[in-house]
Automatic annotation (TrEMBL):
This is Fructose-1,6-bisphosphatase class 1. It comes from Maribacter vaceletii. Pfam families: FBPase, FBPase_C. Homotetramer. Binds 2 magnesium ions per subunit. Keywords: Carbohydrate metabolism, Cytoplasm, Hydrolase, Magnesium, Metal-binding. GO terms for biological process: fructose 1,6-bisphosphate metabolic process; fructose 6-phosphate metabolic process; fructose metabolic process; gluconeogenesis; sucrose biosynthetic process. One of its GO terms (cellular component) is cytosol.
Length: 335
């Protein structure tokens, strides 16, 4: 049983030896993400002052132009990873192409690539609702010492060596896994330190919350419609509660703690749904499985999907085991 009073820094050092490949490189990488998270947290917390300090596109008092927060978050994460020379490549939801990092030590000696959604749910910023950062880490498949290639990024989710998210909510939390369970750390803003607050996080086997944008209901497949009707039916422990923030990280986080299912199905207006396989679904699916949950595209495991392009979208269903299994029954019946 993990003790709760340790800092993220201490936790990373203590757990380094349990990583699959423990050269210290992955620890340094997670440390770099921790640092960038604190910087972005500071910026996100100031978002409400935008009317006073200026909106995106305006020029601030020092003559610098204000940036949109998602662009800023993207820059902060990329800059931190570049400066620390800790990865060989980065792919971001905010960038069309992947970025090759030229490490100074003996040309490209680093073996990890990071895929990141720097600020997910950013449409929520204007209204003071939680947003998040999602990250995913793989070992490169091309030889160390050569520039990264597309195939280093287009790996199946099951190949991830670590994944996590930061939720900028009522408290800021960093939640991640390196393949040995999921642990959550809460930022003490006064000290700028993350503390282990949620050791060994697990989805409850069964849940009572369903999270979906029901405004799209008419466009969903019959299997999804039937499952939603099942959630709403008065029978046994149902009807379930509907909760949808519209911020994947927050919806996932709540469901992991309380028990629930998150759904972003495909529809007649969005052929593959909305969420991106590499930046959103794979890392969340990895965390879900590490936390005893399930993540699927409605029929099969998300982590088994062979990616074909960086910005590929997939339908996404994720959460408490029994709820996702029930959804699968409805999907199979209508397939
Ligand atoms: P984004 O990457 O453009 O921020 O979009 C992803 C977000 C998720 O966080 C959220 O679950 C979903 O979009 C909400 O979409 P919708 O408004 O269509 O329900
Ligand atoms: Mg996103």
């Amino acid at each position: 049983m993990l003790k709760k009073n340790k800092t993220l820094g201490e936790f990373i050092i203590e757990n380094q030896s349990s990583f699959q490949y423990s050269s210290g490189e992955l620890s340094k990488l997670i440390n770099a993400l921790r640092l960038a998270a604190k910087v972005v947290n500071h910026e996100v917390n100031k978002a409400g002052l935008v009317d006073i300090l200026g909106d995106a596109g305006d020029t601030n008092i020092q003559g610098e132009s204000q940036q949109k927060l998602d662009v800023l978050a993207n820059e902060k994460f990329i800059q931190t990873l570049k400066n620390r020379e800790i990865v060989c490549g980065i792919a971001s939801e905010e960038e069309d192409d992947f970025i090759t990092i030229n490490s100074n030590d003996e040309n490209h000696q680093n073996k990890y690539v990071v895929l990141i959604d720097p600020l997910d749910g950013s449409s929520n910023i204007d209204v003071n609702v939680s947003v998040g950062t999602i990250f995913s880490i793989y070992r490169r498949v091309t030889p160390v010492g050569t520039p990264v290639e597309m195939k280093d990024f287009l790996q199946k989710g099951s190949e991830q060596v670590a994944a996590g998210y930061i939720v900028y909510g009522t408290s800021t939390m960093l939640v991640y896994s390196t393949g040995d369970g999921v642990n959550g750390f809460t930022l003490n803003p006064a000290l700028g330190t993350f503390y282990l607050s949620h050791p060994n996080m697990q989805f409850p086997e069964e849940g009572k919350i369903y999270s979906v944008n029901e405004g799209n209901y008419v466009h969903f497949l019959q299997g999804v419609k039937d499952y939603i009707k099942y959630c709403q039916k008065e029978e046994g422990d149902r009807p379930y509660t509907s909760r949808y923030i519209g911020s994947l990280v927050s919806d996932f986080h709540r469901n992991m703690i309380k028990g629930g299912i998150y759904m972003y199905p495909k529809s007649s207006i969005a052929e593959n749904g909305k969420l991106r396989l590499l930046y959103e679904c794979n890392p969340m699916a990895y965390l879900a499985e590490q936390a005893n949950g399930i993540a699927s595209d409605g029929f099969g495991r998300i982590l088994d999907i062979e990616p074909t392009e960086l910005h590929q979208r997939v339908p996404f269903f994720c959460g408490s085991r029994k709820m996702v299994e029930k959804l699968h029954e409805f999907m199979a019946k209508n397939a």
